[in-house]
Amino acid sequence: RRPMPALLFGIAASARARRGVPKAVRLRGGPSGPPAGAASALAAGGTGGAGADPAERGREEQLRAVAENGYALEGLSADLRADPEVVRTAVANAGSALQYAAPALRSDRELVKVAVAQDGYALSYAAEALQGDREVVEAAVAQTGFALQFAAPALRSDPEVVKAAVLDSPHALQHASETALASREVVLAAVARNGGALQYAAEGLRADREIVKRATAQFGGALRHAAPALQTDPQLLRTAKRAEKRSVLRWNVILGISGLLLSVRRAVRWLTSWRRRSR
User: Fold this and answer.
1) Does the pLDDT at position 33 exceed 70?
2) Side-chain-facing half-sphere of 96: CA atoms under 13 Å
């Protein structure tokens, strides 16, 4: 047998010697204690976030979690759900996570504004006082007009607030008060965007020729929501028929473009496959 080189002999001897030393002692660096520098690291809180308080590290982790998914707020402790920074981070990601915030924070005007700007439906979780706050409600209906249903009655009667809502979602008109439904300006704004909103207008406005004409020009089927006397009006019937033709033409164009895009996509796939086979 060839003699073992001195270096390998030394390594083997060291390994045999360490077999007699308990594992815990070896991990600490030997019987004399931890290796140089380890004591200071342990005193500072160990590795991985040295010097950081465990509670603070946990808070930072939860902050990152709600920043990625605001609804993670639901599973946090009561203390964190009452933490303004944590809740603000959550609602900036998912406005309706406001429902999991502590009651005191659902009364925080600035925080609620952040929530409704992200998701107008978050208005339903705001404190009652803020549902009557004009600025908060305007921010909510600008995000989605249907948030109007959660506004205080006084604001659902406000022509400017309702108009802002129907400009985003014409069918939000159904959540307006009787006063707003009788507002000619509000109803005109709604039917100009979607003629079907005529069905929510006050009876008197459904007999208004100009409003019905505007609604019918946008959507021919709106004529059936007009007052009976206008449903048989020859001019309005022609307007409705033209609107229906435009609608059919629009859908034909959309379907044609969709079919063309599908054909192009198939052609690209075939060409790519052919090139691969040709290599």
Assistant:
1) no
2) 7
Would 168 be classed as within a structural domain? yes
Rounded Cα distance, 33 and 256, in Å: 79
* Rounded distance between C-alpha atoms, residue 30 and residue 25, angstroms: 5
Give the Cα separation of 123 and 141 in Å (integer): 9
Q: What whole-number distance in Å separates Cα of residue 143 and Cα of residue 166?
A: 11
Q: How many domains does the chain have?
A: 1
* Segment (H or E) for 197: none
CA distances from 121 to 23, 41, 128 (A): 60, 49, 14
pTM over 0.70: no
Six token digits for residue 127: 């404190």
For residue 254, tell me if it sits in a domain.
yes
**Six-digit token string for 17:** 């010697």
First to last CA, the chain: 57
